[in-house]
# Entry
Amino acid sequence: MLIHCLQSGEDETVRFYACKTLENITAQSISAGYQFATLKVATLLLNIYHTQTNEIFKTSAAVSISHICKLNTTLFPTIFESISAKNFSLALADAPSRI
# Structure
């Protein structure tokens, strides 16, 4: 249900809290977080990161992606390719400190 709530057709408030919940789960529990460290979840979070104008929501998606990369390192090349080296560098330089 949590993954379903991340999809773009859902209410924005529901999507935001689903993203925050994933951020917390992936930060707090390796075993529970690993269940969400999938390409599908990463793709949904990347979609949020690329399309959101709400900086808090966008930051939560970026932090969640970071946690997922730590839990499942095989996803990093796909995620990095989606973000691009230039945008990755800009995010590190100009984004909020949490990113």
